[in-house]
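=== RUN LOG ===
request id: a7f3
mode: sequence -> structure
chains: 1
length: 299
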Amino acid sequence: MIDTNEKDIRQLKAVGTGDGSIKNIAYVALILASLDRPGVSFQKYEHHLEILALDLFAENHGLNSAKERAGALSTVLFERHDYTGNVDYYDDLQNANLMSVIDNRKGFPITLGILYMHAARSQGWHVEGLNFPKHFLIRLYGKSSQSDGQVIIDPFNEGKILEAQDLRNILKNSDDEGDALIPKYYDVLSDRDVLVRLLNNIKIRCLKVSDLGQTINILERLVVIDPKQMIHHYELGMLLAYVKKNAMAKKLLTYCMSNIDKFEPNDLIEQQMINALADIEKQEQENQKSNVYKLPDVE
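=== RESULT ===
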């Protein structure tokens, strides 16, 4: 299970029980990062977050328009602090660890986006993550959303402002998306959903290389910060059953079966859980038989 101090556990659980907004999303992302870098002090990274806020404050001379604010963000994070996307080693999991991203100044779109969001919010600016597929983007607002506008920013590419054609180009370059810009791509992601998307990035890459231990770790974190989404419980339970950690798998899958109405209708998922629980029951019965004391043979 998650191994960290009680204060950090409380903060992660608060994400799961809250309304989806997070007071300091970058700090929570650091807590998640620290789970894979035990013993590393937070002080350096907290100080860096403060520096980003101070540097942006120095650029914020009454900036009201969304474009001006986007320019200031790019000046601070890209030009001054060298944050950019890790194009050469895109699938390196260090790109998903905010501590490593701060150390290396390179990361995934979503980890860089979290830093942009942190800096913007330090100035009281309205910024949010978008439900854009494949490539995480943020939307930044001016002081008045009507007169000062809003822009979509790509933290992975120097904090550039993107127009509609840029968005279509991103979709064209993805594996399975067309280039149509549909309304749901502009939907707002809650802060919690941003962190869920971050952890899902890690989970998918761990599964690709069959790192089941780390996949289990990530799913445990997802269950803590997003407990109402039953799919996390299901995936964790099924994976634990696969690696023969039957006690916890049985608990999770039984919980899922008792909340089957909270899943989107899916007969396959339900049948998989039924089969997994049946297999666990069979293994438990076999273990009981093998543990029965046998008298030694008398010669």
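=== NOTES ===
The chain has two domains: 6-192, 193-286.
Residues 267-290 form the longest helix (24 residues).
=== END ===
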